[in-house]
Amino acid sequence: xxxxxxxxxxxxxxxxxxxxxxxxxxxxxxxxxxxxxxxxxxxxxxxxxxxxxxxxxxxxxxxxxxxxxxxxxxxxxxxxxxxx
Length: 84
Prior knowledge:
The chain is mainly α and 84 residues long. The protein is 48% helix and 0% strand. It is elongated, with a radius of gyration of 20 Å.
């Protein structure tokens, strides 16, 4: 169980979701990669690969934007012991 009372999705849930998609959407490259990653997990592959594949397929239409205001400026804050 996850916080909020939700159940943790399983690989079977992911497979059921993918097979419930319309055929045209199932044939998209992103979903095909997710299916391949899921099959690799069933053959004792890393589970993170299936997670990444499904998340990339879900977010295929999301365009990533860079916000310079969120970037941490870390230079000049740390002084080395040799420079003291």
